[in-house]
Amino acid sequence: MTDDPKKKTNPDDAPENLDIDEILEAAENAREQSDAEVPETQENEAEKWRNLAHRNQAELENFRKRMARDKMDAIQYSNLGLLEELLPIIDNFEMGLVAAKDVSTESIIYQGMSMVHKQMQNFLTDHGVEAIEATNQKFDPNLHEALEQRFSDEVAEGDVIQTTRQGYKCKDRLLRASNVVVSKGSDPGSE
User: Is the same domain home to 189 and 132?
Assistant: First the structure.
């Protein structure tokens, strides 16, 4: 026997321990197994993409809601800066009104200033601004800024005795806290 590479091998020369039926059966089992794995993999892949699409859709919907809410807030509170800058002007105007009242309530100047003051108050109300009531109320650090504490027989401890500068809110937001004097209760030395 020569080792000629062009020579065809005889099937009878194959080792006897290989059975053709076993080889065919093993190949068929391997093909069936790979066919069974492909649909599972495809189903898993499809499910993965479906879940991703649902998550992205929910995320987009949340983004749209957040943008709509931010837009409403921007519209609703767009004038806060202007209103905050207007408050010291109103404070000064009110001090002038008090000075004009001390001179005479019948004065033309006082009456004119009173009309302008009413217009300013209406303007603030129309824009959702309201004054914070502080005097004789419980001290609230979210709304009031304590400048001083005093003993008082008439006002309970922790309540506001006097408002030194008016505070304001615009809808649900604080524009400026009220500056107040808070009661320390009765003076223990006066008893």
Answer: yes
